[in-house]
Each structure stands twice: as structure tokens, then as C-alpha cells.
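Summary for the steering committee. The consortium agreed at its last meeting that each partner would contribute one worked example illustrating the joint modelling workflow. Our contribution is presented below. We chose a case with several input lines so that the handling of multiple components could be demonstrated. No manual editing was applied between input and output; the record is shown as generated.
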Amino acid sequence: MAHSVNFDLTADHMEAGLESPADEEGVHDSFNQLIEDQRQEALELQELQRDLDEEERDSVAYLSSPGQEIWRGSPGRGEEEGGGQLDPLLEERWSSATLKVLSSMPSRTIGRSRGAIISQYYNRTMKLRRRRQSRPSIKDFSRSARPSIRGYGMETDCMETEGVDEEGRKRDQLVNNLQNLSLSDRVRMLRAMPLSVAEKSELRRLADRKGRRSNHSQIPCCSQLKYHIIIALRHSWYSCLSFLHSLQLWQVALKRVSGRFGTGVLSYFLFVKTLLFFNIFLFLVTGLLLAVPQAVHPPTLTQGHEAFSGLELLTGGGYFSDSVMYYGYYSNSTLSKDCRVTSSSMEQQPSPSVSRRTMETDCGVKPSYNMPLAYFFTIGLAFFITCIILVYSMSKSFGQSFRIDKSHGILAMKVFCSWDFKVIKKTSVKLRSENICIQLRDLQYRSRIPTKDPLLKEASLLALPVVVSLINLLLPGIFNATAWMEEYDSPSVNTYIAISRNLMLKVSVLVVLCFHWLGRIASDPHSIGLQCWESFVGQELYRFLLMDFIFTILDTFFGEFLWRLFSQRVLKRKRKPVFDISRNVLELIYGQTLAWLGVLFTPLLPAVQIIKLLLLFYMKQTSVMMNCQSPRKPYRASQMSTIFITLLCCPSFLGAAVCVSYTMWSIRPSESCGPFRSLSTMFQSGKLWVKELETHNPNLAWLAWAHSYIVENPLFLFLAAGIFLIVIYFNTQVVDGQRKIISLLQEQIENEGEDKKFLITRLQAIHQQKRPLSPRRLTSQASQDSNC
Amino acid sequence: MGTTASQLRKDLLSEYQELTFLTKQEIILAHKRFSELLSKEDRNVPTPRVPMEKVLSLPELKSNPFRKRICHVFSTSDMKDGSLTFEDFLDLLSAFSDSATLEIKSHYAFRIFDFDDDGTLDGGDLEKLVNCLTGETDDTRLTTEEMRQLISNILEESDIDKDGTVNLSEFQHVISRSPDFVSSFKIVL
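What follows is the complete predicted structure of the assembly.
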């Protein structure tokens, strides 16, 4: 539909035609005549045009409007059209003939002329017909027609015939096409046409009349019945839809909201409405299928019913606990109706089988209701239907809102689409206009950032570190409060949970910051206007470190000093607050991680860290002496130290090392600053040096060889890792073996002890035996005794 | 085909339902609101026409900056005075309704923004469009320099065939990339 307009041709043909014949004098004779004829024609046309110009001057008067001035002034346009050929065109006024041609161009008429719309929709109905009918059935035609031609809808080639009745002819063809479509297609096509209602009803009348004439006698009675059934179904569907629309829940309120606030705020209220419908559906399903049958057949209560007091509405218990509201009320048997004798006996002996649907009853009434089955299937069905509805509406809305190529043409989109026609209130309209004006100005002047006060700009860089430090300060307090409410069994569990929460907080903060610096700033530094992103990241880390320090000072002052005063004077507690060891150590680890991250970008950052640690030491020492007491619970110092050193190594140092290696290995350094200015990665400097070494000093070629084959080769890393793992395994095996030996040795010592006991008892026994054999011994023993 | 009585005939109602995107309730409500706009003498005329000033007094259109263009686009009057019959009014509501297709909406949006009715949006149309968007007061209007820059940016972004104007297809191409157009191009009675 959009044809590319070539102004050169019209220019040559109509206005500057005199030039071309002049060049062609050396051409063959037979062309000369042709050229002469053309020249004559051109002259005649020019005269005619001059006359027309005199007559229709006022119709071209609007050319001098600012609209033309505006886009004529834009520089790039002239050169594009082939060496300034457009410029002479623009300088002259367009004649009425040209205007006529221009205004009747298809790309311009489709917007407004009825004939163009009809012909466009004729083409569309043609395509639709072809799509729907691949092979038409014979009974659709009158007897005289030949199926092969009629069915494929031969277009008569009528492009040559111009005339007044062309529009009428096209209309007839359109009507013909509409007839041959099915009813729903016809309705849809008619609705989608951008014509007025009067014209559409005319088309419809023509299409229906012709269609009725041809189709009426041909339909046999069984498909007439089918038609009637289909029509009846369609009517019922439409009436159902219109009933839903007529509910018009909150229509007035929604209109008032959208009139004042627009589509954005309206979407929230529409969402509330959607949720309401979901819940109504759920309530109807569960109410009708579960609550009502159970309420009609109440089970016999084992205990007395509690009286209604007002508290049930808040707690949900009490009177409500034995009602249809809760699961416990529902019986696990099959409910049956109208059989009082059997039903009461049924309820007292609930049947365990759930598959029996009908019960033989004395009164012979069949209907029964299997409650467990009903409960299960109702809940399942409700969820299933909700799932289907949600997925369907999600896919529909995704299809409506998904757009590829969103970044292009934002300005044009804003100008064409930003007006919200729903806004009615005058003040809101005015507000919107101002807003649009600001947005347009902003989009226009995005590159020109107005110069702010430079000090203010620099101070605003402190905002992010302040926020991060505040988070680091406040959230552990919240964690402590949560832990106090959770009431753990043992205090060690409490400590571990506190540490892990705090650790996760700090790890996530650091991960986000690293992603922000390395992932976003480093990949595209020019988008923020940075010349040297490494310095910027280094400055950020310096600020973070400093802010962390300042906030630690504040925390020490408020958290420990003032809290001590508060707890002693106001709360009147005897003991001072406890020094939270784990929290403070984690703060130190966090600070150290920042320092390790920053060393690449700010080589003197460790000096800052040294000063910070020195000051921190003295400050904390003073604070602890003044404000805190020794902890009541025994603190397992060596175990905690192990944990802290592990934390320092594993997430802290490892994370920093990974970030630094990633920066050195993959990120492109800035082009205008730093020691790696012209390289593609920082790592390249090492490679280049090795190469240089090779060229300057061939003796050290083995170093280059080693570098390229060992360091860069991943096989080396695998081997190294493999060896490392083998060593670890070996050591663990050694430790295991040593444990076994310890137990063996213990056993041996035990056995040795047994041996010793045995030997001593044996000695004693032998000694006892020997004594009665020698009486001389007794007297000597006695004299011996007296001597001693 | 007009309405003489204060009630809408049933066959007309079903016909309007089929030809427009409006539901039965919306058509009946439109009929009621249209009748309120008619003067006493006009009620007995077979196809009454409401003059543009009366149409513009509807609260839904009163503050809209494009109200005059809307009336001109949907009017079928020979005198081009923007007066609307009931069917024109239905056309208007149908194009601005919830269920109208993107194509209908973009078609009519194009015609509304085409201030000089020449079938394309050239520089003058765009300038008038931006002035309507930014409002009447002096401090929200753009300066000539800003306007010039803005229009050349817009043409650069949306004029694909580089003829200096935005035709319907190019306009529809820009619209199709904005998912919010369908929901903001709505008027509900």
C-alpha cells in the first residue's frame, strides 16, 4: 500500500522536460521524432499548467504554511534524494495537477476515500475466501455454473478501466465476496470495516438479499435443522454474554476513576474486579457442591455446641469451629436424603468405603451424595478451572502486550499514542498535557544534561553508600528481633541462625554491587558518560568503605553508649548490654571484602583500611569498657574463631578473588586511562611481556613455552586440580588410618592391663601356696616382724 | 434509517449490534444520551442531526483536545459542519469501544490526527497534533525551535519511505509497537 514516491519522474516529466531532449541530439534519427513529440507535449503541458496556476492559486496557498517550512529546513533530506534534486522541487510551488496526482496516490487515499477502503476490503475478503474454501462443494453453485472457475473466484483483470462506476463495480465484487463467506466471517468482516454504519448496513442488505435468493431453496431439511440449532446456540451465547455485561459491576465508579486518573490507575481497579470474579466462582463452586449438601444433612454433634460470642469473628474459632466453615465438620460418609431412620443410623456408623455411590435404603429413595469424593473432586476441579482461566488470560494479555523492537521510535510512539482518551476531568487533562510536554522535552534533550552544581553532583554520589550502610545497620536488628520471637531451643542454634542471616544479607549486598559495577558500568561506560570506569569503581569502593566506617562509629555511639544509658536509666536494668561478637566480626569481614575488591582499582585502599582498623580498635575498646558487660553464656571462642576465619576465606576472599580475576580476564579496560590502556584485557599485558621476552632473549623461550602451554592450557588446571584432590584424599586416608591405630593401641593397652592384673593375682596365689610348707619361716617371719 | 420514537426498534438494535462493536446495553445507553442532546423540534425528524456544539457539551468530550477533529471525522454531513446523526454517534462509540480492533482504532486515530484531511500526516499536521497534546497555555507549548527539532525527529523515526509525511501504513506501524494504544484510545459513556 505504501508506494515509494519518486519525485524525480514527475519533475522531469512535467516541469523540467525540456532538458532531456537537448542531450539526445546525437541519437539515431528514429528517436529524434519521438523526442520532438515529447518536447511538444511538455511545452503544452507547461502552458496548461501556467493557466491552471493562475486559476487555482488559492488552493496551493497552504504550501507556505510553517509545516512545509519546518521540514524543508531539515538538512539531511535534500541529499538523500539524489544530489539535491528534491530541493528545486520544494522551492517551486506544486501545481494543482501534481497535487491531484499526489492526493490520489493509493497510499494517501486509503486513509480517507471510501472507494479505496472498499477495494482494500475486497482484497481481504478475497484472501479470506481463498483460505476458507480450498475446494468448494458443488451444491453451493447454481446449476449452470462451471465449478472450476466459479469456485476459485476469478478476478477480472480490470485495472485498465478507469471510470466513475469503478467504485460501484468494486462494491459489487465486495458484496459478492461477502455472500460467499460464512455468516460469522461476514459479520466479523463487516464490523472491522472502517465505514459508516449506513454504508455497512447497505452492504449487508445487498449481501443478505443476494445470498438469500441463491441459497434459500437449496438447503435440505436436515441441514436446515442444523442451521436453526446453530442460530439458537449463537443467540443463547450472545444473550449470556450480554447478561454478563449488564451486571456492570462498579461501572460508574470505574469511569470516575479513569476520568480523573487515566488508564494506569484504572488497571489496578480492573485487577481487583478480576480477582473478585475468581473468588465468586470459587465460592459458588464450593458453596453449592460442599457446604449446601453438608448443611442440609448436619452430622450429630458429639459435644454441645458452643454459644456465639463476638470473638469468633476475629479468631475464627468458638462457634465457627463446629460449622460448615471448617474441614472437621464434613462427614466422611455418603449423605442420603429423606430417610430419617436409616440416615441417623448411617451417621452413627460411618461407612469406611468411599466408592459406594448409591445406598439401598428402606424408603427406596436413590439420591445420595458421596461427601469425601465430592470434596476431593470439587477442590480439584475448582483449581483446575482456575488454572485454565488464568493461563488463557495470561496468554491473551501477553499476546496483546508483547512487542518486538521496542527501543526504536520512542518519540513517534509517544506523540501518537500517549493521549489517554479516557481522561475526562479538566484538571487531569491539563496535568497530562503538562506531563506530555515535559516528557517530549526530556526525550528531545536527553543528551544535553543541564549543568548542576558540581558539588551537589558529587555529594549525590554518596547516596548509594549511605543506603547500603543503613541496610547493613538496620536489618541485623530486625533479624535479632525475629529470632527473639521465634524462641529457639538452644542458644547455639540462635547464634548460628543469626550469623547465617547476617551473612546472607552481606553476601547479597556485595553480589548486587559487583553485578552493578562489573556487569553494567564496565560493559558500557559511555552510557553514563564515564571516561575511566575503573577510577569510578575505585572511588565507589572508597566511599563504601568510608561510609561503613562512619556508620560503625554512629552505631557504636547510639547502639552501645546511648542504649546503655537508656537501659539503665529508663528501663532500670541492672546489667549493661551485651557486646554482639558475631555481628561485629561480620562487619569486619564485610569491610575487608570491600578492601580486597578495591585493591585492583585503588591500590592505596589498604592504607585507608589500616587507618580505619586502628581507629576502630581504640573506639571499640573504649566503648566495650564503658558500655558492655561480659556475656553470661559461655562463648566457644576457638570454634567461633574457626568459623570466622573460614568465612573470611570462603565467601569473602574467594568472592573478591573471583571478581578480580573476572575483571582481569574478561573485561575491557578503559581506553583513555590506566596502565592497560590499549589492551583488550588486563591479562594481555602478561602475554605480551612473555612474547617480548621471547623475541629479545631467545634463551628464555622456554618461559614463553611454559606460559602458553601451562598457564593458558586448561588441561594444566585440570591436572593441578586433580593433583590437589588426590593430595587431600591421601591426607584424609592418613587421618583415618591414624584414628584406627589409636583405637588399636587403646585396645592393646587395655589388654596389657588385663595381663598385669592376671600376673599379679597369679603371683599372689603362688605366694599363698608356698607359705604353709615351711613353719621355720613362720618363726623367722615373727622374729622378722618383731625386729621391724 | 433513523429513530423516530424514543425507543429503539428491535431489528435496528440487532443490526447495530452486528455492525458495530457495541453491546446491546451500550447501544441503548447511547440512544438515551443522544436523545438528551436533541432539541424538542428535532425529536420528530426522521434522522435528526445534533450540531457540533451540542455534541461537544458531552462530558466525555468536553475537555478532550481532539474533540473537534473527532466530530469532523465521524460526521457524514454534507456541509462538513461536524454534526452527528445517531448512526454517526454509534460509529464514534464503536471505534472508541473496548472490543474494537487495533486496526479500526488506528485507522480512525490517523484520520483524527490528519488535520488537513489530505490522507497523510505532514509537518503541519504533526505540529497541530503536538500543540493539542501539550495544551493551550503558553508555558506548556514548545518553542518553534523545539517544535522543528521534534517534528524532524518524528519524521526520521516513522517516515519509512522518506517522502516527508507519515501515511496510514507508517502510522499503523508505529502504533503496532505500542501496547498501550488500544487501552488508551477508549471513550465509554
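Chain B is about 55% helix and 0% strand. Confidence is low (pLDDT under 50) at residues 1-5 of chain B.
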